[in-house]
């Protein structure tokens, strides 16, 4: 009886679960919503995603069942249970068939520990691109800018299996042209390459992209240790 009840409940969830649809919100200018509007939208979106993952991810369904959380009932935002990020290291959490996975992103991890695996299907990957384009274009406009990346090119070599760092670089690269990497293969700041890039585009606005720890550890601190100056006014 318990097994039949679980199957019937899952069938109901499959009927009402839906993948998050961005078509409506994507026409809204970024940062134009009031806090109340954003809170309402976010709560509805997260509730819809909770139902979707419950219906399509066995491990996630077991977690919510164990917590006594019923996703068929609409809950307040603060009542939707978070899950430990550690689970992404211990389990392959996905809400689509494995055959639909087109990319796998990994965390950097630390020595002796496993990495987190984040699986992307085509719908999710496309949605990420749409949202990123909408937000960044609001800042820099529609025109691509000369782009300096504070990282090494080797981090993006494998397009199907790469770190979140590599994914971020690839995502933002679509806003740039004449893309230049500031670091060599040994993670050393290539002053000559950076200086040549800046001189080439001295009369243009440029886009500089890098993760905070990369900019601080390998760019800012390296510049601070030397007497070399870079023209970054633009």
TrEMBL record:
InterPro entries on file: ANL_N_sf, LuxE
**Domain Acyl-protein synthetase LuxE, residue spans:** 23-225
Q: Name one GO molecular function term.
A: long-chain fatty acid--protein ligase activity
What's a BP term from Gene Ontology annotated to this protein? bioluminescence
Please state what the protein is called: Acyl-protein synthetase LuxE domain-containing protein
Q: Which organism is it from?
A: marine metagenome
